[in-house]
């Protein structure tokens, strides 16, 4: 897997490698000046409630401008209010001469109505003047206002919901809404929807809001028309960037010593060092930055114009390193930030080489030349990880490859806090697996022999009845896969979830600690069906309680198929690579899907019998020290898990379906492990019922 041009792969096991067609489609503009994602969103401009899910750098801000201008000029709305999470993002909504590129109108925000540029922090004491500005705007004939989430929240509290009737409210980075402890903005949105007098456009670069509670209740959310533009489509349509590697690297000891193994000075890199309160931190952020610079070469002073550190490498090259960690001198920090944002340098690849950051350089930070996002320590927020990866996935001339590396502390044998270390490691793996799902092509699943789908290419032989058919839609990057015995969703909502929201279901599954622990490290004592049927089934029922049993089962099957096919494709690629086949980094995930499917007749029972963590474990076994791996397995296997009441109910239901199919109940002495487990579930369910009955009778006799 190591190549001379890619030394970091000697140390990092890519957990996934996506290779794209780089068709240039996502960067081409139509006659109105719209790129692919913007055109897709604009086609739905007549909807009252819109949710746009689209990756960083796909052009959400401009998509909103197109939609807002149409609503103001053609749909009778009085004003548009753009709400952003922090003031720095307000710049994305500055004036744009859209008519120059073919659109009907220009986007303009009068200086007094861009409240992100107004001085003063966003808190009630200071925000009074900003709330007054919102009031004045609502009374004016002007059309557009930009403010922060906080300003908007205070304005709604003070002015009331009715004050915003007949206006468009557009919320950028929608996932931020839920990170509010009391979720005020979420409840205000619920009130706007109940009154039904505004138009709402919500935009997010995150495909899952699994980090926290949902922003809106299911009933409100169902009213939104969703436009999804996937990471895969975005990358596939670039002109330059061909592949993206995501991997993790385990280290023992101090992280600064491990950094030099994975930080290639030839790659334009953003290094995110750990938070001071995290386990990985050395509690001295300035020293950590200095040590990272020392690992690159000899410090050679500071550039007086930009404030960048100059570091001379062993090969004699001078690296320019921007330090965004040191906040001891505001003037110095301001100089570095100004240099990084200098519009004259945007297209200058040699302006800066490495950026070292702590809380900055994530969302909305635009450095198109970044090739490597190196993050130390796990990040509990998946949204944050998507944003960090987004820094490296901008398209730029000559940049063919991008990578994200997560440096994770290995649970060491002598470490007292093994449980905590394992916990952190599981979260990092969970994030990595989720990113694989986000980056993989979208699957279109149908039952066996349902016929070819329009727009899909089935290869030289074409579609064959009874064959192992795989269709590819080159325009969208979707893959059509047939599965024997697949349950089809019945309702429009379940059909939409199977098409649009499988990643959200998979997120809930991968964030279940028991699922991860057992699936990865307790293979002796867990059956794949317990993960794929019981745990995934429970997650789907909890997420969508109002759907029918058939719809819930359809969603469960589609979600586990999407996850298992991606994981098995990855495993097939890794095995081909180990046998001297094509390097994983230069093989499309699609090849792995073909390898997995071509040799077997896919049916849902087969998919349910695959442990979704097999491929991740294969990566771990390569990347981790064997003693550490054994220790983690022992600590997890030691936690004895009995059958819970919920699992017993579910197993009893599965046993009922088994009886319907086979004409007999599962046998507790069966050689088939899953049949045996269902029989144990039936016995456990009977025990729970007996205990409940005894408790009830005892209560009656004492009464």
Cross-sheet strand order for the largest sheet: 1-8-15-14-9-13-12-11-10
Pairing-aware structural class of the strands and helices? alpha/beta
Sheet with the most strands, sense and barrel status: 9 strands, mixed
- Please give the share of residues in helix: 40-55%
The general outline is globular
Q: Tally the helices: what do you get? A: 23
| C-alpha Rg (nearest Å) | 27 Å
Low-pLDDT windows of residues? 1-11, 582-587
Tell me the number of strands: 18
Distance between the termini: 73 Å
Mean pLDDT: 81
What percent of residues are in strands?
A: 5-15%
Structure, explained:
The model is unreliable at 1-11 and 582-587 (pLDDT under 50). The chain is an alpha/beta fold and 703 residues long. A hairpin with a 6-residue loop joins strand 10 and strand 11. Helix 8 (255-262) packs parallel to helix 9. A nine-stranded mixed beta sheet has the order 1-8-15-14-9-13-12-11-10, sandwiched between helices. Strands 4-3-5-6-2-7 form a six-stranded parallel beta sheet, sandwiched between helices. The chain is globular.
Topology:
Blueprint: E1 13-19, H1 36-42, E2 49-53, H2 60-74, E3 79-84, H3 124-139, E4 144-148, H4 149-159, E5 167-171, H5 184-195, E6 199-204, H6 218-221, E7 225-228, H7 231-236, E8 243-251, H8 255-262, E9 269-272, H9 285-296, E10 298-302, E11 309-312, E12 318-323, H10 330-341, E13 354-357, E14 372-376, H11 382-392, E15 401-409, H12 418-439, E16 443-447, E17 470-473, E18 478-483, H13 492-500, H14 502-510, H15 513-521, H16 528-543, H17 549-578, H18 589-598, H19 604-608, H20 614-623, H21 626-637, H22 645-662, H23 673-702
Parallel strand pairs: 2-6, 2-7, 3-4, 3-5, 5-6, 8-15, 9-13, 9-14, 12-13, 14-15, 16-18
Antiparallel strand pairs: 1-8, 10-11, 11-12, 17-18
Helix pairs in contact: 1-2, 3-4, 8-9, 12-14, 13-17, 14-16, 14-17, 15-21, 16-17, 16-22, 17-18, 17-20, 22-23
């Amino acid at each position: 897997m190591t190549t001379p041009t890619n030394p970091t792969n000697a140390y990092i096991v890519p957990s996934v490698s996506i290779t794209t067609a780089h068709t240039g489609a996502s960067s081409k503009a139509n006659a109105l000046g719209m790129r692919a994602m913007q055109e897709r969103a604009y086609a739905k401009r007549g909807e009252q409630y819109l949710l746009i899910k689209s990756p960083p750098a796909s052009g959400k801000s401009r998509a909103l401008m197109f939609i807002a201008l149409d609503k103001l000029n053609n749909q009778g709305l009085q004003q548009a209010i753009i709400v952003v999470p922090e003031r720095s993002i307000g710049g994305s909504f500055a004036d744009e001469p859209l008519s120059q590129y073919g659109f009907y109108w220009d986007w303009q925000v009068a200086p007094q109505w861009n409240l992100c540029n107004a001085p003063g922090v966003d808190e009630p004491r200071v925000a009074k003047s900003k709330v007054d500005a919102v009031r004045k705007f609502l009374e004016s004939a002007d059309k557009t206002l930009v403010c922060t989430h906080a300003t908007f929240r205070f304005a709604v509290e003070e002015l009331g919901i009715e004050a915003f009737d007949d206006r468009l409210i557009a919320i950028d980075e929608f996932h931020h809404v839920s990170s509010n402890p009391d979720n005020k903005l979420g409840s205000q949105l619920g009130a706007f929807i109940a009154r039904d007098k505004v138009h709402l456009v919500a935009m997010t670069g995150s495909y899952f809001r699994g980090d926290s509670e949902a922003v809106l209740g299911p009933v409100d959310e169902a009213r939104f028309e969703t436009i999804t533009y996937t990471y895969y489509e975005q990358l596939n349509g670039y002109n330059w960037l061909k592949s993206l590697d995501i991997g993790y690297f385990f280290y023992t000891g101090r992280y600064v010593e491990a950094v030099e193994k994975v930080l290639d000075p030839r790659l334009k890199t953003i290094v995110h060092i750990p938070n001071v309160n995290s386990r990985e931190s050395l509690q001295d952020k300035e020293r950590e930055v200095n040590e990272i610079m020392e690992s690159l070469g000899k410090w050679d002073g500071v550039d007086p114009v930009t404030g960048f550190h100059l570091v001379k490498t062993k090969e004699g090259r001078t690296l320019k390193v921007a330090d965004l960690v040191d906040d001891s001198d505001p003037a110095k920090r301001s100089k570095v930030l100004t240099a990084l944002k200098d519009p004259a340098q945007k297209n200058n690849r040699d302006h800066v080489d490495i950026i070292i950051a702590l809380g900055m350089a994530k969302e909305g930070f635009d450095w198109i030349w970044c090739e490597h996002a190196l993050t130390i320590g796990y990040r509990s927020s998946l949204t944050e990880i998507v944003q960090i990866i987004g820094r490296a996935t901008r398209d730029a001339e000559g940049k063919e490859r991008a990578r994200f590396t997560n440096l994770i502390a290995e649970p060491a044998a002598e470490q007292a806090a093994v449980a905590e270390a394992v916990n952190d490691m599981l979260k990092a793996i969970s994030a990595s697996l989720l990113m694989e799902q986000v980056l993989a092509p979208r699957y279109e699943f149908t039952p066996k022999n349902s016929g070819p789908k329009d727009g899909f290419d089935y290869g030289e032989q074409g579609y064959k009845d009874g064959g192992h058919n795989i269709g590819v839609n080159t325009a969208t990057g979707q893959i059509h896969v047939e599965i024997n015995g697949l349950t089809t969703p019945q309702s429009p909502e379940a059909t939409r979830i199977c098409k649009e929201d499988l990643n959200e279901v998979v997120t809930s599954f991968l964030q279940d600690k028991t699922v991860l622990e057992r699936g990865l490290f307790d293979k002796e004592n867990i059956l794949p069906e317990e993960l794929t049927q019981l745990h995934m089934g429970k997650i789907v029922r909890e997420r969508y309680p109002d759907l029918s049993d058939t719809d819930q089962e359809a969603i469960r099957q589609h979600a586990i198929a999407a996850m298992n096919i991606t994981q098995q494709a990855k495993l097939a690629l890794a095995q081909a690579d180990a046998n001297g086949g094509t390097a994983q980094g230069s093989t499309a995930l699609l090849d792995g899907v073909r390898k997995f499917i071509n040799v077997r007749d896919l049916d849902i029972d087969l998919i349910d019998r695959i442990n979704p963590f097999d491929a991740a474990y294969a990566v771990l076994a390569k990347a981790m020290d064997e003693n550490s791996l054994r220790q983690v397995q022992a600590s997890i296997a030691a936690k004895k898990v009995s059958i819970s009441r919920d699992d017993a109910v579910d197993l009893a239901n599965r046993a009922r379906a088994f009886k319907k199919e086979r004409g007999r109940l599962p046998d507790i002495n069966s050689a088939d492990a899953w049949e045996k487990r269902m029989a144990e579930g039936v016995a456990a369910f009977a025990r729970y019922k007996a205990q409940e009955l005894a408790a009830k009778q005892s209560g009656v006799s004492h009464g």
